[in-house]
Amino acid sequence: xxxxxxxxxxxxxxxxxxxxxxxxxxxxxxxxxxxxxxxxxxxxxxxxxxxxxxxxxxxxxxxxxxxxxxxxxxxxxxxxxxxxxxxxxxxxxxxxxxxxxxx
Length: 103
What we know:
mainly alpha, elongated
């Protein structure tokens, strides 16, 4: 019986190690979004201090955000092609998180 428990733990550890790269990539994407949000906040603070002609237009901000989201989606698609098993596992974990999320 203890050997069976040890085997189960070993298998779970191997699965979690296999999922680690996908989780790290997801974590990096979240961190990149957080950095972008922090930059946006700092721009908002300095925007009021700048003269009108130097202010960044809302359209420019939207354009850069769209570019960022396009690159993020491209990176996710690449990850799915390169590591389909880890990408599928990451999708399943995300679905479970969304199912257990309380509104």
